[in-house]
Amino acid sequence: MSGELQFHTSHGHYWASYSVENRRPDLAGFAVSSTSVYVCLLEGSTGATPSEEMNGTGNLMDFLDEPFPDVGTYEDFHTIDWLREKSRDTDRHRKITTKSKESYWELIKSLLDAWSGWVVMLLIGMLTGTLAGVIDLAVDWMTDLKEGVCLSALYYSREQCCWTSNETTFEDRDKCPQWQKWAELMTGHSEGAGAYVLNYFLYVLWALLFSFLAVSLVRVFAPYACGSGIPEIKTILSGFIIRGYLGKWTLLIKTVTLVLAVSSGLSLGKEGPLVHVACCCGNLFCSLFSKYSKNEGKRREVHRLVLFYVEYHTPWYMAELVPFILLGVFGGLWGALFIRGNIAWCRRRKTTLLGKYPVLEVIVITGITAVLAFPNPYTRRSTSELISELFNDCGALESSQLCDYVNNPNMSRPVDDIPDRPAGPGVYSALWQLALALIFKIVITIFTFGMKIPSGLFIPSMAVGAIAGRIVGIAVEQMAYHHHDWIIFKNWCRPGADCVTPGLYAMVGAAACLGGVTRMTVSLVVIMFELTGGLEYIVPLMAAAVTSKWVADAFGKEGIYESHIQLNGYPYLDVRDEFTHRTLATDVMRPRRSEPPLAVLTQDSTTVEDVETLIKDTDYNGFPVVVSRESERLIGFVQRRELTVAIKTARQKQDGVVSSSVVYFTEDNPQVAEACDPQPLKLRRILNLSPFTVTDHTPMETVVDIFRKLGLRQCLVTRSGRLLGIITKKDVLRHMAQMMNQDPESIMFN
């Protein structure tokens, strides 16, 4: 992901923005760990009414902020207006600053308003960290529950159980009397065909139970809790409204089902869904503060920790850049294959009967995964444990199969500087098991991601790359040991030296595959550094990440999240997309020749009944205001919500306002001709006198850029001050899809 992460401060507000070219929020990256994620801090400017700075008028009517039934700030599946939101926040801050000079109480209130951002951030961090920790512990326990149980404490995982045991030996550090597999507990036998079959059966049964509970809870209680949530969050942060997506119920169900889904053993991770969980936490706490409860603009801050700590004792050499780049090529090919395969499967799910049976799909995929995963020790364990072992450097105390090397009995070197050694039988056995695990992970992840359960992609992608990288690393290591006189090794690898670190290759491969799927580069290297703490390996990571992006981009520019945004038809304008077609605003604006004329209001000749009828018969977000229908000279733009609230409030609180009352948007006070005439209704204060406009000959390349950078909801098209039409964000997206020979009706929401 290209761009730059910047931190800003203004009027006591703090926020982070990604990309200097885009002034509205965009998701800055998804660096996550097992106990922390990127947290959405709802910090910024929103509201429902234009400020005096935008309107050039006096203070806003207070009744516009009063709630009315069926009237919200924005409707569901609509786009917010970033210009109005910023203006609203500026107006709010000016009002607080002015009042703070009137009394000590107002000064205290202004200080509390300034501190509320830090309070919200603290609460978000505490709740997010707590939930992430609970999820981590629960996943470890339930993953081990598929294989056995701790007799001393049922709520202990195998690792915790053996920690408390005084009978654990160094050779059998993963075994202890307190931890028993199900066959041993039920039959008293831990070895033999019968015990293996029983353990196999119960492993599959537990996996099916966990996945069934996960998909059932999502389907019945919180449909928005499915998937990773990142495509939707990127769309929400760009200004789109999806009511309930960050709600309390979604938070609860997502947290519970995330544990169940990961524990089932499916090829998915919890890091992506943790972003969704964190954003739900942010939305929860921000609703408690008036400063944020009316805000739709979101800004982000980070919390981070280390997930896979690595410590390598051998530097990398320039000659190793060749296999690192080859791993980048593999990562790019894997990313392109995964995106095409997964999108094809998800499209098939949407257009066939498969989509009508999400529970059955989850059960079938879980059953296949469990049946194929159990025989292989590298697919049976949790994916996080697998990655940790693949990243690990082989020391003298390691008992893994991957560290089964032939040792020289005369070796007397320090334990952290072990020279390259010939591979033993355990290493060769691990290699073919890893090869099978690689094929399994590549195939099953394509069908797993996107099911109706919480599912992340970071960990599965890293697992694919780590397996491939470890295999390549062992191959290079053995080549260097047996052929150290080759020209590629002769200058830097002496006999008896510790030349190659296979764990480093696993880390580079993980970065390459993650980059191939997400198309991130610089931010990916930062993520890998934060997850592993390996600062000195930035160059190999960057080489692999950039190569994987180049290779993957040759097959398609979109990453997996952008592809799912397109698949779901979300109105998201990616700042990286280029629009080079030579079309004009007049080619895109509405109304077209075959369509009815644009719905407008006049400044002094429209009655309350006319306005109410227009609101009832249309679903537009707002209406242009013109001098008259004959001249169509543009005066301003009024939002549907403000118009509805103003008329309802006037009917309730202002005497003489009836259906035949004339609505005025003029600056001068309207005159009542006769005493029997109905009382006029002046609504100039809700009129936006400076709506964003373009001429009919403005190139669409410029219009698209304006919509991206300013986050516009709509802009009006004029010629010499005369209103011709309107262009909405949905119109822009449809036109872009049409120019790329895609179905313009695939844009589902406005």
From TrEMBL:
Chief place where the protein resides: membrane
Residue ranges of every copy of the CBS domain listed in the record: 589-653, 687-745
InterPro entries: CBS_dom (IPR000644), CBS_dom_sf (IPR046342), Cl-channel_core (IPR014743), ClC (IPR001807)
Record's keyword terms, sorted: CBS domain, Chloride, Endosome, Ion transport, Membrane, Transmembrane, Transmembrane helix, Transport
Single GO cellular component term: synaptic vesicle
Compartment(s): Endosome membrane; Membrane
UniProt keyword Transport, yes or no: yes
Transmembrane segments: 115-135, 200-225, 246-268, 324-345, 357-374, 430-450, 457-476, 504-529
Pfam families given in the database record: CBS, Voltage_CLC
This protein's record includes keyword Nucleotide-binding: no
Superkingdom of source: Eukaryota
GO molecular function annotations of the record: antiporter activity; ATP binding; voltage-gated chloride channel activity
Topological relation to the membrane, as annotated: Multi-pass membrane protein
Coiled-coil zones: none
Record-stated family: Belongs to the chloride channel (TC 2.A.49) family.
Entry protein name: Chloride channel protein
Species this protein is from: Oncorhynchus kisutch
Record gene name: CLCN4
